[in-house]
Amino acid sequence: MSILNVAIIGTGGITLQNHLPGLALCRDVRVHALCDANPATLETARQQTGAAIYATSWQDIVIRDDVHAVIIATPNFLHPEIAIAAAQHGKHILCEKPLALNATDAQRMLDEAERAGVRHMTAFTYRFVPAMRYLSHLIDQGELGTPYHYRCLRLQDWGTRNLGWRQVRKFAGTGEIGDMLSHRINFAQYLVGPVRRLVANLKNRTPVRDGAPNDTDDWVAILAEFTNQATGVLESSKLASGHNESWRSLDHVELNGSAATFQFTTGKWNELQAGRLGGSGLKPLSVPPEFWVWPGSPRDPSVGDPLVSFRYDQAVEFINAIREQRPCAIPFNDGVAAQRVMDAAVKSTEVGQWVEVSNL
């Protein structure tokens, strides 16, 4: 196909901020169809894109022969039904995280996409941060040595403002663990390997947000063991007063290995902190320019806010995988693996003990 027609299902903030600018970088790609249950949100996106097709029912979109790929950015509970239908109609799929409300449904999405032979991708956007990519490269080169410890900390200040569907369990599944910690769980399994078992605690400190009930977690902590015997500590909160709620709030990852320690902070997109065994402390380590842009992306890293623009490479990778008939860099497999860890964390909180991830 010369022109690749993309449909976006769910046209709220994440679509306007991430998906549309990313697709604009891609040659011979057209935002052909839009869908949102909210007519006002749909109209905003229609005016911005000029899409020829628009509807409030996703069923009207996935059946269209003139749609080649879909981006799913709806409330979480809708992801499986839409993705499975899209796969059955031969559409390539980029889906926001978490993939589903549980690992069983996420696995169904993966199985159906594989059965249909379509490209599938999980929107773990932070994997495209240049510093994260360079950190992965260093680990692949053996610079870390044997991994000992993984720790991450994501702190934001969301106060008690209303989060819409994200604070309703039947729509979102979980709160902070699915919203923010899912990215860092993916980091952990990408950089260290599969999580074998864990003990966790989830807390809801804001049962009412701006007068509306909230039945989701706004803080989570996990103590984990990986299959390679490494250990992990993961924490994320929406209630870290004073930390801001944007991408400029604290987002920190550290790995300790037998040869070195590396620290990664999303706010320093082109720098790591590194220290060698027996050294005198961590020092800045610049990210080489070849890691500033995702391979195959035409994005100019000097244009725009680098703490935002790296996200656009996600759409480029999705489109290039379709064009090149290869697997996406972050397939549904990654989303399923993260969901298994999240399910285990929820279970651990319920039973108050360690849970084996592989047994769920």
What does this structure look like?
With 360 residues, the chain is of the alpha/beta class. The chain has two domains: 4-125, NAD(P)-binding Rossmann-like Domain (Rossmann fold); 129-306 and 338-351, Dihydrodipicolinate Reductase, domain 2, CATH 3.30.360.10. It has helices at 13-24, 39-49, 59-62, 79-88, 103-116, 130-140, 169-172, 176-191, 306-309, 313-324, 332-351; strands at residues 4-9, 29-35, 53-55, 69-72, 92-95, 120-122, 147-155, 195-203, 208-209, 212-213, 219-226, 231-237, 251-257, 260-265, 271-276, 283-286, 355-356. The strands form three sheets. A nine-stranded mixed sheet has the order 16-15-14-13-7-12-11-8-17. The chain has a six-stranded parallel sheet with strand order 3-2-1-4-5-6, sandwiched between helices. The protein starts with a strand and ends with a strand.
